[in-house]
Amino acid sequence: MSIRLSAMALVLAAFSAASCTKEISTSPSNPLPIVISGTVRNTLEAPLGGVTVTATSAGTSVQGFTDVDGRFTLPGLRAGSQEYITVTAQLGGYVKLSRVVEPPLVHQTVNLKLATLSALPIDSSASAQLLPSDVADYVAEPYESDYSWNTKYFSFSTGAEDLVVELTWEHSGNASLQMWWQNTSFASQAAGDKQVIVLPKNRSGVLLIGQPFQAQQLTSATNFTLETRRVTSGNER
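The structure assignment produced for this chain is given below.
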């Protein structure tokens, strides 16, 4: 009798354990909470504090800020196993950056590097330096883009007249610079030993200065100068 009761007790215990165990699903209807952490630095590898970092997946998002060491942690984002996560970092004076990461693990690590965003001078000139450490980026129209190995960024607003931008640089090493208006088909053309682009009136955006794909990655720092002048449409020459 005792043997029979013991056997029954074991069966009941096994049934009880099975009934209390539930498989965890990461489907969109039952997503798991994800922790996203990482760092944000500039192109010289210095940490950036106060950066707004947002993680988004399937219409939900969490947001936080980097500390003085450029570190951030975003807990609590819920994402399914097939849902990609977009992590965006934004700080005044820098180019906004978004990174898409693979369908989630419980803990995702994302390290970001922000490029400086400078103002393009109007009817004036500015000199800067393109560095081998400057970020790579896709240029021109989305999905039909060229590629820049090393990139500088300049915001602009043309006003009531077209804006002609001329780029000159030190022709040393493998430097072969070009300009692009971000997310458009506008690209500079060679004019002697310089590159020239005409930005139409009443438009704003970001002008990219970079080392084009066919020239390979920049091997040394290169000084360049931008000169701009406003002109009446059709009289840019």
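Interim note for the steering committee: The radius of gyration is 27 Å. The chain is about 10% helix and 50% strand.
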